[in-house]
Amino acid sequence: MNDKVKNILEWIYCIIIAVVIALLIKYFVGTPTIVKQSSMWPTLEQNDRLILNRLTRTFGQMPQRGDIITFEAPSNNATGLLQEDVENPVAKYEDEPTSWWGKFVYYVLEIGKESYIKRVIGLPGDHVELKDGKVYINGNELDEPYLSDDVITEPTGVLTDFIVPEDTIFAMGDNREGSKDCRAFGCIPLDKIESKVVIRFWPFSKFGKVD
């Protein structure tokens, strides 16, 4: 093998290793993202750049109430829950790939995959009530200082009074009137949570931790 071919192969090996390392970091550690919708306004605005912490998924950590998370969009995000689902209000995931290549493209490369950014409101076992324009957790009104003063929390589906099932969370957007969230499609299984939002790095004037 001459030196020219050897150098080309070495470059190819280096590129492959770099790509693999980058994919591993993106999937298991963290990754940047861009806010594309207004469902988390005023906390997050469209085109904000964020850093996502994916160690929470890697180690199977339970999110805390108030955390801003990303999760895989359910397959019933357009139709929402039906009345018969209220006893087990869990979002449905029925269109996932089954082949190893399809899973790699969808989950690792994230091609064709849609994710939502919302705030954790209810944890497993919580009794959640949406009434009088407010949120009640286990009978107590939830303090939500991150909301605008004029925000009213109304049901957007069949969920008004329910228990968050085990191994799921209930999440909503801060822009309650402009958010398609768990009120419509149900609680999110823990294994569908992708990451926790930790830092906004753009616009630079808002750089810092996101609460």
Helix content: 10-25%
In CATH terms, the superfamily is: Umud Fragment, subunit A
Largest sheet report: 8 strands, antiparallel
Total tally of structural domains: 1
User: Nearest-angstrom radius of gyration?
Assistant: 20 Å
Structural class, judged by helices and strands? alpha+beta
Q: Tally the helices.
A: 4
CATH topology: Umud Fragment, subunit A
Mean of pLDDT: 94
How many β-strand stretches? Answer: 12
Distance between the termini: 57 Å
Percent of residues in β-strands: 25-35%
Poorly predicted runs are none
CATH class: Mainly Beta
- Which sequence of SSEs, written as H and E, runs from N to C? HEEHEHEEEEEEHEEE
Principal-axis shape equals elongated
The CATH architecture comes to Ribbon
Task: Itemize the secondary structure elements and their pairings.
Elements: H1 3-28, E1 30-34, E2 49-53, H2 55-58, E3 68-72, H3 100-108, E4 115-122, E5 127-131, E6 134-137, E7 140-141, E8 161-163, E9 168-172, H4 182-185, E10 188-189, E11 193-202, E12 208-209
Antiparallel strand pairs: 1-2, 2-11, 3-4, 3-11, 4-9, 5-6, 5-8, 6-7, 9-10, 11-12
